[in-house]
From TrEMBL:
Transmembrane segments: 41-64, 76-98, 110-131, 152-175, 215-235
SUPFAM superfamilies xref list: MetI-like
Keywords for this protein: Cell membrane, Membrane, Transmembrane, Transmembrane helix, Transport
Family assignment from sequence similarity: Belongs to the binding-protein-dependent transport system permease family.
Tagged with keyword Membrane: yes
Membrane topology: Multi-pass membrane protein
Organism lineage string: Bacteria, Bacillati, Actinomycetota, Actinomycetes, Micrococcales
InterPro entries given in the database record: MetI-like, MetI-like_sf
Protein name: Carbohydrate ABC transporter permease
Pfam families in UniProt: BPD_transp_1
Ranges of residues in domain ABC transmembrane type-1: 41-235
Annotated localization: Cell membrane
Length: 250
């Protein structure tokens, strides 16, 4: 994809890693003229950043409460959360659209695009499973010292589950970043549409009429995929076993 994006005449057959032929940036320039890559990337980062922030702010305490606190209805709520994961998001789009655009009036807005992704039940499940692996003695010692639950979560539990946080950030980032149907449904203003929507419209309506359609499509796909690769590369060093027993004596 990266090689074909900068070739003057890429083919449909797999290209060599360093192919011969003319190299050009014209493919990227032509896509940018019709899609505005920088604006699309900015919109995607706003929507995805809002989803990631909401998942961390709301999902981390939810996972901690399901794993470490004792309260009535905890098991039933966890079962309901697992049941929600079995429902395809596409089945919820029409009622969500009626609620978000009709009742809340959030059509053509960043908040309207972010709202359905504000809490990720998969992220809550990951946090819960990681918090369950933290030794109980760490929590008991902190409570004896007078620490509240919020302080225990932020200063003791969260640093020990950094692999879970990295996993959640990556999983949450990929979903909204590549989402097409919901932003396309809720947003008609092209100035607010994420890059995935802009590129889909470009490929459908414009790319096939260009002199080098393969190169244009590959250039657009590269612009959409590159940030995900960068995020994964930045977080990959955190995908390791946590030192959960480092705070224990003996």
């Amino acid at each position: 994809m990266a090689v074909g994006a900068f070739q003057a005449s890429p083919t449909n057959t797999p290209a060599a890693l360093v192919p011969t032929g003319d190299w050009t940036v014209q493919n990227v320039v032509l896509v940018d003229e019709r899609v505005d890559l920088l604006r699309g990337l900015l919109n995607s980062f706003i929507v995805t950043g809002g989803a990631v922030a909401g998942t961390l702010v709301l999902g981390l305490p939810a996972g901690y409460a399901l794993a470490r606190l004792r309260w009535r209805g905890r098991g039933a709520l966890f079962a309901a959360m697992l049941a929600v994961q079995m429902i395809p998001f596409q089945l919820l789009m029409i009622p969500l659209y009626i609620q978000v655009a009709g009742m809340y009036g959030l059509g053509d807005s960043y908040l309207g695009m972010v709202l359905p992704f504000l809490v990720n039940t998969t992220a809550v499940f990951i946090f819960r499973q990681y918090f369950l692996t933290v030794p109980d003695s760490l929590f008991e010692a902190a409570r004896i010292d007078g620490a509240g639950e919020l302080r225990i979560m932020l200063t003791i539990a969260a640093p020990l589950v950094r692999p879970a946080i990295a996993t959640v950030v990556l999983v949450t980032f990929i979903g909204p970043w590549n989402e097409f149907l919901w932003p396309f449904l809720i947003t008609k203003d092209t100035a607010l549409q994420p890059l995935a929507v802009g590129l889909a419209n470009f490929i459908t309506n414009v790319a096939t009429t260009m002199p080098n359609p393969n190169g244009a499509i590959l250039a657009g796909a590269l612009a959409l995929a590159l940030p995900v690769v960068v995020v994964f590369a930045a977080l990959q060093r955190h995908f390791r076993a946590a030192d959960l027993g480092s705070g224990l004596k003996g």
